[in-house]
Design goal:
The structure is a homodimer. Chain A contains seven helices and two strands; from the N terminus they run αααββαααα. By secondary structure, chain A is mostly helical. Chain A has a domain of about 110 residues: Arc Repressor Mutant, subunit A. In chain A, strands 1-2 form a two-stranded antiparallel ribbon. Chains A and B meet through helix 1, helix 5, helix 6 and helix 7 of A and helix 1, helix 5, helix 6 and helix 7 of B. The first copy, chain A, binds a DNA duplex through helix 3. Chains A, B: Pfam families: Rrf2 (PF02082). Chains A, B: This is Rrf2 family transcriptional regulator.
Chain lengths: ~160, ~160
DNA sequence: GAGGCAATACTCGGATATGGGATGTCCGAGTACTTTGGG
DNA sequence: CCCAAAGTACTCGGACATCCCATATCCGAGTATTGCCTC
């Protein structure tokens, strides 16, 4: 799993802490955690294409959340950054070689793919069940000053 | 996720179909599904290191299951082939940059990592709950002749 | 004919290349602010 | 003093390099079989 997912999740929470009235540029978000600016911008563009954040060019421009954190699930972010394709992709090797004659009917999904799919479904369900607001609340419980620190730092630049 | 997982899972079921008395070489297993022999051998070696299969060199050598299919979970195979490390690895970016002063205590796990870890735990639980014997039964339900076809093909070579 | 021995063929196991995608970087198009000149 | 217009600085967005790991391959060490030679 790419590390862009971690960056995107943290950035979304940071955007929520920055507030809905203030747009934050990719450069600011990257500097906050010492990340490569242009590459984080790439991930943010993916979030923008998915409708999770909105973007604005020019001075006072940047990114801001397109909707409340409570309406954004972890699944939304992961799908936006990593792509919609499943992690386990069945290549239907059962149909190849001597084992897979044309006589057999492959209407049913491969048993291996079924089993792996069940596991991946459980993963996706758990991701979809958790909103970014849950993450934000937990983070604030651990570091209550984090939101203000970020806002102060943004205001001082 | 690497495609070696799919190959390993199918190969384990094939080994069960071949029977416990007969060792099957990596070349035979690969030819059965038109896979690159040497690379499949690599995955089988990983299974051997994990104690899922046993290996024997020389003529009449090859691989065979180290224990019944019912005692092998999907999780065992995935961990053996893909490695034990988690798919989502937290880089602790919250500690980097201006956002992460030394004043903050990082005893608690990052909220993002916690949330992603819950999802990955659900995935692992589902994988651990399914045994390879379940997969075999489902596969035989779809293609009852598959075991005999494989045994006949192995005997004819 | 029986037994031992050498030759052989086959296997795993690890060391060695290669290609594609994730990672990282750079520049152009566009926008809002600022400044400056004129009315 | 007010307004307009040009200049400027800042932003996103996509095109362009680079690096690492999954993929793929090859060769050596070891073993059971097989055939042969000797007794």
């Amino acid at each position: 799993m790419g590390e862009g997912v971690e960056w995107a999740l943290h950035s979304c929470v940071n955007l929520a802490w920055a507030g809905p009235d203030r747009a934050v540029s990719a450069a600011r978000l990257a500097a906050w955690h010492d990340l490569p600016t242009a590459y984080l911008n790439k991930q943010l563009q993916a979030l923008a294409r998915a409708g999770i954040v909105t973007s604005a060019p020019g001075p006072r421009g940047g990114f801001r959340l397109a909707r409340p954190l409570a309406d954004i699930s972890l699944m939304d972010v992961v799908a936006a950054v990593e792509g919609p394709e499943e992690a386990f992709r069945c290549a239907e090797i059962r149909q190849q070689g001597p084992g897979g004659g044309p006589a057999a009917s492959y209407a049913a999904e491969c048993a291996v793919a079924q089993a792996m799919g069940r596991a991946e479904l459980a993963w996706r369900r758990e991701l979809a069940a958790q909103s970014l607001d849950d993450v934000r609340q937990q983070a604030e419980r651990q570091a209550p000053d984090a939101p203000r620190q970020l806002r102060d730092w943004l205001a001082s630049r």
